[in-house]
């Protein structure tokens, strides 16, 4: 029986320090049918020269400009042939044997299109890392959260999420996905540029009838915040804008109207609260995101990727509001919030 081919694809932008630190472990990955590709997103540092001098076995794809995470990966993966893609952030420390459980999971169940490893913090290894933790969920107002991470609260990993389970989304920091499904779904939405593009892709994949899963037997460690740190106004803008675009594209009927309208009110309250607290940058970012969303609805929808179907069952969807559960009821952990009241 042929061994499935895998391409580990790292999108790099001015990340030489991370390539120096983390790429050697990637190159030591033991798998018989593996290629490693670095797609350089118009870096202005010495990333490409470093790769050429130190890793001659790597395939390098070069872009002359920074296309962002979404379009950058789309363009790179058009040039990569493999049964599976592993999209890996440059600031991820892989572990020995991490790739085998990912392959085994998807080979054993053809209905699963994508999965993610358990993602722990590189700086605090006993804690889950913000960007994905043990797998992504979504509440009924489209606030994303994860097993092991709710808003800014990251749990200690005590093995509580070590059973593979269905998710709403898998983290783009370490996304293992069938190449055919990636292209069938249209890839990432290039309009997003960065942030929440993997949630949108996983949503469209689920709507196409596939499943997303966690694979906690595979473990990686993520630095996080390497490109746009927490609190950055551009990051805030992209998260709010892309979240609204994602809702508009993937929801239908009255629920889309209700959720987007209610979210606009909540976003406004959050923005004005920040303004009164002296954070004008946050207020401007949220306001700009909403204006950009309106512009997208009026003029730019044709630039986005829409789902081909909207009738599939969604997994990893909480029927409650995560903000109410966390901030009002004081529930910090995923396991305290996600009990029997789930759609899974």
From TrEMBL:
Residue span, Glycosyltransferase 2-like domain: 8-116
Gene Ontology molecular function terms on file: glycosyltransferase activity
Pfam families the UniProt entry points to: Glycos_transf_2
Keywords: Glycosyltransferase, Transferase
SUPFAM superfamilies: Nucleotide-diphospho-sugar transferases
Annotated InterPro entries: Glyco_trans_2-like, Nucleotide-diphossugar_trans
Family statement: Belongs to the glycosyltransferase 2 family.
Name of the protein in question: Glycosyl transferase family 2
Source organism per UniProt: Niabella ginsenosidivorans
